[in-house]
Amino acid sequence: MRLSDFLREAAADLRSAKLRSLLTSLGIIIGVASVVVLLSLGEGVRATVTSAFSDLGSTRITVSPSAPGRGMGGGAFAPISSTLTLDDVDAVRGLPGVAAAEPLVQAVGRVQSGEVTRDMAVTGTGPRYPELAGQELEEGRTFAADAQEAVVSRSAAERFFPNGGALGSQLTVNGTAYAVVGITADLDLGFGGGGGAGSQAEPGGGGSGGGFRVAVYLPAVDVMALAATERVGQILIAAADPAQVDATVEAVDALLLERHGVDDFRVDSLADLLGSFQEIFGVLTGFLAALAGISLLVGGIGIMNIMLVVVAERTREIGIAKAIGATRRDVVLQFLTEAVLISLVGGLVGLLIAWLGVLVIGQALGIEAAVSGWIVGLALAVSVGIGVFFGVAPAWRAARMDPITALRHE
Question: Who contacts 15 (Cβ-Cβ below 8 Å, separation ≥6)?
Answer without folding.
Answer: 21
